[in-house]
Amino acid sequence: MSMPNEEYNDVEGGLGLFARRLIAYIVLVLLTFLCLFWFYLLFINSSRSNSELSRGFTLIPSTFFMQNFNNVIHGTLPIMKGMRNSFIIAGTCAIISTYFSAMTAYAIHVYDFKAKKAIFTFILGVMMIPTQVTALGFIKLVEGMKLMNSFIPLIVPSIAAPATFYYMKQYMDSTLPHAIVEAARIDGSSEWRTFNTISLPIMKPAIAVQMIFTFVANWNNYFTPALILKKDEMKTLPILIAQLRSADFLKFDMGQVYMTIAISIAPVIIVYIILSRSIVGGVAVGSVKG
Amino acid sequence: MAKEKKKTSQVVKYNKWGYIFLIPFIVVYLVFQLIPLITTIYNSFFENYMSGLKQVGPNWIGLTNYITIFKNGDVPKYFANTMIMWIAGFIPQIVLSLLLAAWFADTRLRIKAAGFYKTVIYMPNLIMASAFAMLFFTLFAKTGPINSLMIQMGVFTEPYEFLTYTASTRTIVAFMNCLMWFGNTTILLMAGMMGIDNALFEAAQVDGATSTQVFFRVTLPLLRPILLFVLITSLIGGLQMFDVPQVLTNGDKTALRQITTMIMYLNNHLYSKNFGMAGALSVFLFIITGILSIIVYKFSTSESNE
């Protein structure tokens, strides 16, 4: 008895392999177009002057890219300050969130103590609760602490990041055997040192992936910073974008509007182009058990 | 015996470090999540808002805030808005993702440059939602490039004001949500499909099943737990819909109340300092997301027990 081969199966019913492949590629190319088209338009339009833009649609870049860039930087919206603020918040969050999430995961992974299971269950339970539902109490707390218009209430809470913790825990389950910790103890290393100099280096790949995700999430975050940061010089990019939207739109130089959007999303796109492999690889690990 | 005892105390000594390493997480969680949650619930029972420049309350009014936000039609309306836009985005998103994941995971199809396609379709997920919404606002504006293109191509005779009509605005929001999330869902579903025993596919092929039959009779039933996970996490995400409709409609200060989502409504109350109603709304959202979380939690723990 011979095994039925591909062709046999496909003739039997359904479409031939060639036809299926063709459809798959057509759909993929269309989706690629659908994903990239908007960014191409953004790039084209940010290189055109206001009068060129009002003349209509084109797919050919113009020559006003640098001029638009300079106009935005020296314009009325504090874009460069916003960028600096976004970098400070997202960068600090990325570092402390991953470090303390690794520490929390390490506590659950390595040690045995009474409340361990309860705490683990609790963290997983609250993982999906959105921060928006506690926003009211959060504002009151921040007002009470006199920390309005400060980066602290946007940075410190990222120490308790259940989703990052969960990813770290998953990663430790597969890469950090207890024997390593035991060996370090026998060699006389303190628990603090074992975590910082032996376990953390093993966690490097997971930390890198989570640093990127935390950075991007905070870079893009609009809801909470908009509630906390009211002073112009403290505002982050998403707040400035929303401000641009609510200003009298028609008075703006459209080339500058496109340039502002481009400046806001460019850092993430550049990071993504460089690190896309590990980013895409990291998406599935933290969410679903493979 | 003595040695045994010494060893135990040694282990206990180590294990106290479990608590020490948990301190930062627990302290920060208590201060910045749990206390705000309690304050939020507490505030929901008070009348507390600004009437012009005059502060009204806080006066204890029990459940009146809850009754008000339901009775005046706000919550039902904004909940419906949120759900309509979520469903309109989620259905094409899940269909596309299933299709793509099946193609990427299909060993016979051997899609070339799959890595490139995955990279491209995931990218919109990382884009700043508010900037992306601002981009769509300018592109779909009356004088924007989409209208110019349509007129140049002869599809429209005059500019169509996409963002002044409910249906077209909702479609744009749903389209953006789909575009931003289908890559993410594809990757999750692919991970699920990779986990299915290949022998099952081979057995189905030996039995003469077509690829369509394999998809509907083998892949889909085995993917059910992950589909449930995707559905519920996406629903929780959908309830949080804010950046895109907020920036697209400029926080809904115009006639377009059909776009206002639950979180936009919450945001409006927080800005106008109507803390009583904001509290009641938050508690309502907390209960819904809490129930959904329990389902997700049950799902992920039952998975790991297998």
Calculate the mean pLDDT score of chain B and round it. 87
Strand order within the widest sheet of chain B? Answer: 1-2
Helix run count of chain B: 12
Tell me the CATH topology of chain B: MetI-like fold
Provide the CATH superfamily of the largest domain in chain A: MetI-like
Output the keywords.
heterodimer; A: 290 residues; mainly alpha; MetI-like fold; disordered N terminus; B: 306 residues; two-stranded antiparallel sheet
What's the helix and strand layout?
The complex is a heterodimer of chains A (290) and B (306).
Chain A: H1 6-12, H2 17-45, H3 50-54, H4 65-73, H5 79-110, H6 116-126, H7 135-144, H8 152-155, H9 162-175, H10 178-186, H11 191-202, H12 204-220, H13 223-228, H14 237-246, H15 254-287
Helix pairs in contact in A: 4-15, 5-9, 5-12, 9-12, 10-11, 12-15, 14-15
Chain B: H1 2-43, E1 46-51, E2 54-60, H2 64-71, H3 74-105, H4 114-122, H5 129-139, H6 145-153, H7 166-194, H8 198-206, H9 211-239, H10 243-249, H11 262-271, H12 275-305
Antiparallel strand pairs in B: 1-2
Helix pairs in contact in B: 1-12, 2-12, 3-7, 3-9, 4-7, 5-10, 7-9, 7-10, 8-9, 9-12, 11-12
Structure description:
The complex is a heterodimer of chains A (290) and B (306). Chain A has 290 residues and is mostly helical. Chain A has two domains: 6-70, no CATH class; 73-287, MetI-like (MetI-like fold). Helices cover 72% and strands 0% of the residues of chain A. Chain A starts with 5 loop residues before the first helix and ends with a helix. Chain B has a single domain (64-305), classed as MetI-like fold. Helices cover 74% and strands 4% of the residues of chain B. Chain B has helices spanning 2-43, 64-71, 74-105, 114-122, 129-139, 145-153, 166-194, 198-206, 211-239, 243-249, 262-271, 275-305; strands spanning 46-51, 54-60. A two-stranded antiparallel sheet of chain B has the order 1-2. In chain B, strand 1 and strand 2 (54-60) form a beta hairpin. Chain B starts with a helix and ends with a helix. At the A-B interface, helix 1, helix 2, helix 5, helix 6 and helix 7 of A face helix 1, helix 3, helix 4, helix 5 and helix 6 of B.
